[in-house]
Specification:
With 333 residues, the chain is α/β, with parallel strands linked by helices. The chain has two domains: 116 residues, ATPase, nucleotide binding domain (Nucleotidyltransferase, domain 5); 144 residues, ATPase, nucleotide binding domain (Nucleotidyltransferase, domain 5), CATH 3.30.420. Helix content is 34%, strand content 24%. The protein has nine helices and 14 strands. It has a six-stranded mixed beta sheet with strand order 3-2-1-4-5-14. The C terminus is likely disordered.
Length: 333
């Protein structure tokens, strides 16, 4: 079977998806990055292979996420794309008439506006924790309630507690105050969901036209309380796709298929056995000019696979040839 592999490596989660030629999902993995993107990708590849019920020949590989360049070198990606592009493509594949994409991950959140299948505007928040999934994660630990149960608790609430949402520190202080006042856990949790939604809309949607059809994706979309809070704030139905937690990987797999079919190139995929290799990463600062670029280096044993990070391309190395080049070995946008 011919397949297309998509990998999305973020600061919190690493996701992998394998699609067939008809863009149907045959295997998917959602795992924690835990500050070790290379190990997470290797672990994810092993978990993906464990789901196979037949042999697969990977025809194309796409990478996205904050560690997409690193991932591209490790696995041999054919197309390396930014998260906005990957999530938009996945949303269009899942819900063809989508016009607004709400995406909330562990460390950042995104708003993507589409008109007639084209991205017309977007916004990202990677600064304030109060608008990301880590905000709910942290509060779940304080409340002693697993984050997986937040949605169940929130739906029990008839009216969420009013909790400040402009800042994670103030929100936590406000939550403690509500606990001391005797508010029920379900009302506090629903209040936290509503607080996160207010923060998201105030920071990302300000001045933008958020219209139906609305799709909600990312790991936080698993929280039914967040869906309820968004629907109340936007006064419209919010659709959660089947593979909402791995949409970045899904989009990157679709982009990889489009790329190899458009160019006719053979995939650069290094095979699933790369999960067994011992990769080492290091970095150094170039003193050649005032830019003081930080250069990242990836190697296996004594072989340098790639270097990247310089603005001028002085230190860039083509992988796997090892030749210096001003051009990357994969498509980067």
């Amino acid at each position: 079977m011919k397949g297309y592999l998509g990998i999305d490596v973020g600061s919190v989660s690493t996701n992998l998806v394998l699609l067939d030629e008809d863009l149907q999902v045959h295997a998917s993995v959602y795992t924690r990055t835990q500050g070790q993107p290379i190990a997470a990708v290797q672990r994810g590849m092993d978990e993906l292979v464990a789901q196979f019920d037949r042999p697969w020949r990977v025809e194309g590989v796409g990478a996205t996420g904050s560690a997409r360049y690193l991932t591209g070198v490790i696995v041999g990606a054919d197309a390396v794309k930014n998260e906005i592009t990957a999530h938009a493509v996945a949303a269009l594949h899942s819900v063809p008439d989508v016009r607004t994409v709400l995406e909330i991950g562990g460390q950042d959140s995104k708003l993507i506006l589409l008109r007639d299948g084209i991205v017309t505007d977007f916004a990202m928040n990677s600064v304030c924790a109060a608008g990301t999934g880590s905000f709910l994660d942290h509060q779940s630990q304080r409340l002693g309630i697993p984050i997986e149960e937040f949605g169940t608790y929130a739906l029990r609430s008839e009216k969420g507690a009013q909790i400040a949402g402009r800042c994670g520190v103030f929100a936590e202080s406000d939550m403690v105050h509500k606990q001391q006042m005797g508010y029920a856990a379900e009302d506090i949790i629903m209040g936290l969901c509503e607080s996160l939604v207010r923060n998201y809309l105030n920071n990302l949607a300000k001045g933008k036209e958020v219209v139906a059809t609305v799709v909600f994706q990312g790991g936080v979309a698993a929280n039914a309380g967040m869906k309820r809070a968004f629907e109340a704030a936007l006064d419209t139905e919010v659709i959660i796709p089947d593979y909402h937690d791995v949409m970045g990987a899904l989009g990157s797999a679709i982009l990889a298929k489009e790329y190899v079919e458009r160019t006719g190139r053979t995939t650069a995929f290094k095979g699933f056995e790369t999960s067994q290799l011992d990769y080492k990463t290091s970095s150094f600062y170039c003193k050649g000019c005032a830019n003081n670029c930080e250069i990242a280096k990836i190697q296996v044993s004594d072989e340098v696979l790639a270097r990247f990070g310089s603005r001028c391309g002085k230190w860039d190395i083509d992988a796997p040839s090892g030749n210096k080049s001003m051009e990357p070995v994969f498509v980067v946008e």
